[in-house]
Amino acid sequence: MFDTMGIEELPATLCQYTSVESLEKILASRNMRFSRLDQMNDPEQAEAADVPMAASTVFVSCWSAGNTEHIPMWSMYGKNFEGVRMKLPSNMFDGRESPMVFEKGGAIRSFAGQYSIVRKSPAMSTSGCAIIGPNKIWYSDDPFYGKRNLIFRAAGTAHFNPYDLGMVKSAYWAYEEEWRFKVAALSLESQFPDDRYFNEVTLDLINYPVETDALFIPLDRSALDELEVTSVHGQTPRP
After folding, report:
1. Element (H, E) at 76
2. Given this model, what pLDDT does residue 76 score?
3. Any residues with CB less than 8 A from the CB of 152 and at least 6 apart, and which?
4. Under a CB-based contact definition with an 8 Å cutoff, are residues 95 and 110 in contact?
5. Cβ atoms of 184 and 138 closer than 8 Å
6. Among the listed residues 195, 179, 220, 166, the one whose alpha carbon sits nearest the alpha carbon of residue 57
7. How many Å apart are CA 97 and CA 143, to the nearest integer?
8. How many separate helices (H) and strands (E) can be counted in the chain?
9. 3-state secondary structure 22-53
10. Kind and range of the H or E run holding 66
């Protein structure tokens, strides 16, 4: 990560701009929402050349590591300056597991629980406890980082490699300084028999779509004790 993006270490804290209503829901439920990527503000991100609707298999929670506040962020995500900026430790999820960092795919961690991602039958649904991230978004308009193939086929086996899916955005968004947690419905660097089921069911996200709209991952109580909330008018009392 350092050679390409200059990342020496993961951020200790992360910030998110949101509405007061969303903050209240987070505090009441002690859950963090992971939104499906095809429902996010940049419709071009997470497109793949060989898997239509690939973005529907990725769920994300988006944060900023910068300590500098940005007016566009207050406007877009802070409900036109009426919202809040919350800061939490980056190991915020239940169990507060330390991340492992790999050369490919970056950071990954687990949490004390399990999520379930449902697809229309006969496509297989997914369950797990792995959270990818936080990893830094790469901003580029280079076509090389645009629509890329996720599948490499050889000797009757389909090698599926979606590491970068949902991790590249147009340079237009660079001011966000975004770091992202990600949950994937299709496993990283998996191998499948290159058969009819894989091609006509597993990869057919149009006829056998992901039916789960969002995931709610539990936050650790001790992480919430470290929560800092700020409004455009200064420090805001916690509800």
Report:
1. helix 71-76
2. 61
3. 158, 159, 161
4. yes
5. no
6. 166
7. 36
8. 5, 16
9. HHHHHHHHCEEEEEEHHHCCCCCCCCECCCCC
10. none
Q: What angle do CA 141, 146, 150 make, to 5 degrees?
A: 155
C-alpha gyration radius of the chain:
18
> pTM surpassing 0.90?
no
Which whole number is the average pLDDT over 44-64? Answer: 87
CA distances 7 to 3, 90, 96, 152, 229, Å, are 8, 15, 22, 29, 26
Pairing of strands 58-64, 31-36: antiparallel
Is the model's pLDDT at 233 over the cut of 70?
no
pLDDT band at residue 238 using 50, 70 and 90 as cut-offs: very low
Side chain identity at 5, as an amino acid letter?
M
Q: Which of 140, 165, 142 is nearest to 50 (CA)?
A: 165
